[in-house]
Amino acid sequence: MIDLKNLTISSAHNSLKNKDFTVLELVEAYLSEISKRNGSVNAYLEIYKNVKEQAEPAQKMFDDGSATMLTGIPIAVKDNILVKGEHASSSSKILEGYTCVYDATIIKKLKEECPVFIGRTNMDEFAMGSSTQTSAYGVTRNPLDESLVPGGSSGGPAAAVAMDGALIALGSETCGSIRQPAAFCGLVGLKPTYGAVSRYGLMSLASSLDQISPIGKSVEDVEILYKSISFHDKEDSTSVVEEKRIVNRPYGKRIGVPESCFNPDLDKEVAASFKASLELLKNAGYEIVTLPMKFEKYALAVYYVVMPAESATNLGRFDGIRYGMRKEGKSLLETYSHSRGLGFGREVRRRALLGNYVLSTMSNGAYAKALKVRAAISGEIFDAFTKVDFIVSPTAPMQPFKLGEKLTDPVAMYLSDVFSAPANLSGCPSIALPAVKFSSGLPGSLQATAPLWCEENLFTFGKEFEKLL
Ligand code: GLN
To answer: What is the arithmetic mean of pLDDT over 182-189?
Structure first.
């Protein structure tokens, strides 16, 4: 029996090297957990057909001594990342049955190390949502308590790891979609610096914000996978060249906490977990200062102008002609509207409407104004980093909520991203870390954000914090 609960990438690597178990045995252990739990959790939409075959070249690498850290490591893949020859649908009906014709750059690169891609996981449709309830293929449940949501939109990847259906997962984040599900499922989730990870082969949501990144059980696991997928890719014009990724910022122990984190209206349990987590840091020698932030409170509003505008534009390609589902009408225009009307779910249609509205003259230049406020928010954050080394907050303003909750109130759902948005808008890297537990016994989550390209400092911070718990 392999102890999947306590397995890490490096312990799995050592065991594979020492022949304690084979790659196939490892994969079979995960498949057996999936067969027990996926029926109710619904983390995976599909297990890749060649999952066991993938074990063969990986095993060979161990046998001939060429294995690297990720060789043979079982990875779950969000349903918006392309894996050649496999289906990917962004959990939307409009892409039902779509087969990927190429590998996302990061998948192609990872294949050199021969990990085992287990399957594609559920998500909010087109990554719009915070609870994995807008998928066209059913909700995903939180493996820690199946009456709760796993967070979203990367709820499938997070649930896959939390139910021991993969050792680590690839998710994507536009605003909170890695960090918040990591928080709800008691995991570590990283939102990298914008431009660190190639978006080529990631279905676009909002192109100025989207990033792929790992969700895992430990900071070290996340760091290992992140380092393999973070490199310049000429296929993505926003991927940053290596020379510009270098930072000269030593590790420091000054922590800034935005004033809003002490708002008396914050959920009591979230506030208590956060306070206790800060206490641990203080006792470990961190200096904590409160940051008055003037523009931060506009972050969510800005996000909900920028994101719909960009996503409405990106969704334009789903017209029933080139991809996926088509419902014929009497004219071309009718074919477009029938296909899109039937293929997209409610939330996607809402955002397409909102996005086209903010881009229209009717909105009085809302998009351009939002970009100005975005610049002010970023400026304020960069300025804060001249005084502190990290900005810390709770990851989400609420505890994991019940399935069915907030579905009829989109604004309540959007509030899940209130602490996430500043890092996405400014491009700064940010990590969600399991933190002091709520009184229910569910894990709390602490979010730490660092200056651009300071992922390394986040990993150091995360590992220190893991030890304090
Ligand atoms: N909750 C965010 C939204 O609904 C999630 C976006 C994301 O990160 N994919 O827009």
So the answer is: 98
